[in-house]
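We both want to read discrete structure tokens more fluently, so let's practise on a single case. Would you write everything just below, so we can both look at the same thing?
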Amino acid sequence: MPEVTGPGGEFSVLRQPKAVWAVAFTCVVGFMGIGLVDPILPAIARGLRASPGQVELLFTSYFAVTAAMMLVTGAISSRIGARPTLLLGLGIIVVFAALAGSSTSVGALVGFRAGWGFGNALFIATALAVIVGAASGGVPGAVILYESALGLGISLGPALGGLLGGITWRAPFFGTATLMGIGFLLILIFLSPVPKPARPTSVLDPLRAVRHPGLATVAVMALFYNFGFFTVLAYSPFVINLSVHALGLIYFGWGLLLALTSVLLAPRLERRFGTVPPLFGVLIALSVLLMAMAVLPRAGVVAAVIASGAVLGINNTLVTQAAMTVSPAARPVASAGYNFVRWIGGAAAPWLAGQLAVRIGARVPFVVGAGAVMLGLVVLVVGRRHLAVLPRGRRRLPVPAAVPLGVDWDA
């Protein structure tokens, strides 16, 4: 596909085929589901007479299933095709989001979120691969577009959750089901069938892919980073403890900063300094902000949460692009392996935060989150030599050609 440029000949992320925009819109709605429950977590706890620890399981069940199902997503999409896989994932999300809105107990809600996570796994990994394959501007342009959708979705999710949650905590779930239904129709209309790979993917291929030392470094670092990310996203609403509308505005500001820095600042930092050096800076900054949340009064926690959006946006773009380019594995396989590892951090953080808050203290989860992020920094330092293929600033090194997944990386 020829590169699309702006008036001055430069690449324009806004000039994309209709199919890419259809997938990107649906990604926005899909990522809204992550932050949607943030402002309504306390309301859900009150409405279903559940403890904060029980409500935190809404994130844990969602991301645990998402992580596990990443291993089968490639096997499914390589056999039935990317378009049917996207539609299957969206259909599952619509059903389980609607069921979540009709829950009468916290156990049922946690279970329906797990089903939602299965649809999310089918959709997210396949959507990234479709956007990378169909978008103009190559991998960097596709990743910027994908991260724009992620940032916009994460910012709009809390806003929608706060707006509809003021009516009832059930309304955001029904709203998401409706929007995902619209996304289903858009993909059905605008996305043409995508050619299947020459060789069907097996369940083990993503695990083989993350044997590559470069992808393993990025994925494990992202696991610890995601632990900090979802400590902020899933646990901080209970510490801030404001109204549904106030929480919606706070996390909208957080997500807006995430979206802006992922699109506007991250590419500039990469061009100037390369991929790896900015990652050191954002991991240190996130760790500092998490420690600030552990000691500051509520107003300071609010400020630190919003500021963390800027850090998270930069990291999301750089890490996603690194995962897509650091190894010679096929991109759908690399995406599945990377997402399988990193979502483990997203699943573990909310559950552990709830346990630590009850057993030790309300601010302890932030300290543990900061420590996890610093472990990610250690992984990056130790594995930096495996990331030499990534951009080093002012110039880009060539990406190696694809090789069979059965290659012994240690040879």
The chain has a mean pLDDT of 83. The radius of gyration is 20 Å. The first helix runs from residue 18 to 35. The CA atoms of residues 309 and 320 lie 16 Å apart.
